[in-house]
Give the backbone structure.
Amino acid sequence: MSRQAKIWIALWAVYIIWGSTYLGIELAAETMPGTFAAGARFTIAGLLMLGFIGWRRGRGALRLTRAELASSAVVGLLLPGAHSLLFITESEVPIGLTSLIIASIPLWVLLLRLAARERPDLVSTIGLVVGFGGIALLVRPGGGSGSLGLLLLTVLASFLWAFGSFLSPRLPVPRDAFVATAYEMLAGGLVLLVIGLLVYSPSELDPAGYSARSIFGLVYLIFLGSIVGYSAYVWLLANAPIGQVSTYAYVNPVIAIALGAIVLDESITVRIVAGAVLILFAVAIVIRRESARKAPLAVPPQDARAVPVRPCETTGRSS
């Protein structure tokens, strides 16, 4: 199989798997307590990824300095913590709408860069304004797509995820993306598990009350969403142009909207279409402009397991 064919297979894996994780969250949260389910997802995924890394590379690959451990914990609290909010909001907010709000992560990152007195160019700034106009359209009151409180909580999730992505390259996290992500998922997952055990009653935590759909959703999120999807993403960063890899940011919402309509019978309103056009257009502008200003992240083809590459902060990352 040619290298280009492998790139497209991995790219479509990221498109479909990450686009479908919104459906996985919806299914898992149907009968499982949201914070507990999110904690279980990231704890198990983090442990499995650390076990795999240790098995393939030896225990030495898992050693961290105190600074790296602390940084991984901070980023882990922000990233899985942000994702855990979706287990709560998707009880009312359609997954297509959720995916569009989460797609605004690159816009939040750009806003954080402005706050840090970094200066993106004029075109990127215009894209930022257009994108936030799309968000305002989606979360305006009276739209019939979930309560305003849950919509704003979804916006908060996108901001927290962007903040974690913004901080990650500025903190002494492990240089190897797999190791860093494994520790971040484990740290965030353990905290969420503890919170879940404290706030939910024993009857809510009883596995006997979990439906087969919810269990399937959680298993899908652990193995495909967190492990297979992220592995494909990191491999792409090491083998494909960043501009091509970054297209997942505006393909994932299309997959999520389609699955919401097909599986959950969610309606696609004029407001969602208009918001989607504004947000995805803005994200495309920001990613293209910001990627062009950065040094290429792709490296010569080699064993991706040994490439100490970090995801581009402009595109964020998902799992």
Q: What stands out?
A: Residues 35 and 199 are 9 Å apart (CA to CA). The mean pLDDT is 86.
